Structures
1.
Amino acid sequence: MTQTKESTKQADQRGLAGQVIGDTSVCSVNQTQLIYRGYEIADLAANATFEEVAYLLLNGEKPTGEELADFKSQLISMRAIPESVKEAIIHIANNSPEAHPMAVLRTAVSLLSHLCPVCEDNGAEADMQKSMHLLAKIPTCIGVHQMALDGKDPVDPDPTLGHAANLLWCMSGEKPHESAAKVMDVSLILYAEHDFNASTFTSRVIASTNGDLHSCVCGGIGALKGNLHGGANEAAMEMLQEIMTEVEGGSTAEAFMKHAFETKKKLMGFGHRVYKNGDHRAGILRKWGLEYCALANQDAKKWFDLGDEVQAIMLRDKNIFPNVDFPCGMTYYALGIPVPQYTPIFVVARITGWCAHTMEQHQNNRIIRPLAQYTGEELRTWND
């Protein structure tokens, strides 16, 4: 059972780093570009709406005006959630307020599966129907949970609002500022898809077993919940809050970072498995976050000023760039969104990518079953 040089080399590729394990027509990621079905992310952030991007990811092509109008109309008609699901979310909020919103959302999606008449149908038409239902209903589920945590009755989705604005409305019961809706829309576009990331790969593995789409999404939510993946935007903001407390107490960001380097403290919101020279989504979201502060919440700019200082120190001393989760934390904080809801909002966006990949896997499937390199005991006998 001696390892060969080749098997040892393979075993060193922990986390499948650098290994291509499948084909996709959904997304391409490289050092300089993030492309959704042929369209670069900066182009989409500047010129498209999230609904247009959702249609593109799910259907493969940019919608015509008529197709987009029909798509949006269908989503609006699907936003309401069953009363039993609403009651379950409120019950959890009232009896387990410490439950992580991602765990609550995972439960909500699972409950929705029981009420879906085509849940077990993995055909293309059924998968598209389920994808649109989840895309429409997930913001409502998040809103019901946050309103219950705030001691308020949930509000009905607003058919006059776009997807991003309706999300903010459902979470607060207040009509959002136009600039708030815009920056949320852009953030959803930036987070919608990212090829075989951990949560998408999880969804595809489940799909490869002929698992249903709801199960794939529940698996995706579970993977995204971790602070090394989707939860990094929460952790990045919590880190900035910690730094701000020390700065306001008379210390400096420089002192915090120096101590963090010396103690090997994990600094969230920096580095990326793919992007070695910077995550181009980060600059886009920082720009929109600052624009929102200038228009609607100038007091929140102090977080971006602190973030810029921390980012500069990290780049100077470690040559590590921020990823999109770093400005996301500051942007959502400026919007007044509770930190524990940052990752569920990630789901509002990434549901499009998960569903696109699940449908792609279902339509051209082979079960995903890699091998492992054994590093345990040599062969032995039980009765020795």
2.
Amino acid sequence: MRKLIYNEAELMIELIKTPKRVTLLMEQQPGKVCETGLAVGDKVKRGQKVGEAPDASTPSIHSPIAGEVKETIPALTPEGHHTTAVVIEGGEADSEPTRGDENFLSSSAEELRSRLLEAGVGALGFKGTACFAPPLSVKVEREIETLIISAIDEEPILILNQQIVREHNDELRTGVELVRRVTGAKKVVVATTPALKPKVGEHAVAIEPVYPNALPQMLIWRITGRPVYNSKEANDKGYAVLSAETVVSMVRALRDGIPVMEKVVTVQVEASGPRNLRVPIGTPLFGVLKAVGCTLAQGDRVIMGGPMRGMAQFDPHMPVTKSTDAIVHQRGHGVTRYLDMACIGCGACVKVCPMKIQVDMMTRYCEYSLLDNAKSYDLDACIECGLCAFVCRAKRPLLQFILFAKNEIQRQEEELLEA
């Protein structure tokens, strides 16, 4: 198999027209659920908090438009979790006054963490990259030895974090000192590509731009020389990863008083190349696609996330969240059809696995919910890169089998805790 190379093109970030209607999910990032005190008919200003954090580890949620609450309804997240959604309609220009602070670095770590959560700053990116983000709101229980700021996007077509480094270089440099102060990290490095390294300065560590080197587990392995397989192991060893977009949003929130109301998204449609858009959170998928001249047809597929790890969505009204890094559109004739076929034992998945797992055996057990057997074949070590499914000659949905097994294990553990 040829190497999948990360896209290193320069692609300016474009603004899209502010929508008249947004749907704000109260679970913007997996496991981070807010509560709303708003009711139908309430007036909302742009930048106003609409989702209150129930604890000291969840970022607040803010409205990107001014208007009126039209509905509070049950909804599904892009990952399929049940949550509540607040629908706001309007689009007027008035906004909450901002309260920036040019001298924010002189504040204490506790005060900075509190202000960041109040401004809605969490770990932005696919699945929130929350597994590998240090806490921003509570005292860090275990010292962080190495904090990695990733300026490389996790999947091949994505270009958003690289472009943020190009367009917000000063904020990123300030952010290095900010995350050191907030988290108490002993060492902060910026993972970047060789082409982008000169912009980052003395903190830069160049990583070969080959997928899946930018996934959090791989970054930690490449930079520290010590493999980690999941978030708990990363935390136990004192490692953490944040995206460049997250760090820049931290600086903007504290310095300029701007809460997180937008998400930079790489949009790939079949008729044209990728584009970087700054999208108001809560904008529906079809609205983002319409902004780039794409209309959906019967049989088309829309993926939130990249082509290797993203999730196909059944509803074009699914809103953009803080976890949305990419939107990929595929015409129906180009969609790969997985087959209900047994493994043919070719070994292609084993050869390509970066963690050297015996994927063929593990996924057979995942498929039939034989979870203990799957764990004995290193299920916990899988970093969910999707390369196994990409090369599977039998066209088996291997990544989906793996995610199913991991979700089942998590569900069983939660039931045991409740019991």
3.
Amino acid sequence: MKIEIKNFGDKLVSRPAGREAFLALESYQLKGLSENEPIEIDFAGIKALTPSWADEVVTKIAERFKNVKLLNADSMTVQATLKTLREYSNLKI
């Protein structure tokens, strides 16, 4: 399953918006998937990503699924956010 983060916009900045994005994913794309389902989170086209938004989406996906891969995560904003989540939210990917 590939999740294209840009479907939620290119500037992802608030915890409430992240929570809403995760609920949409959970209802439509993630519903009924096994915890062993390979999940690819694609950050292509993202201009701004805050730790609060990503904590609501990326951290929750990583907690739920065992095989999560990050794609196009080379931008400075994505790298800085992932670093923060690894330090403070115990993100394992």
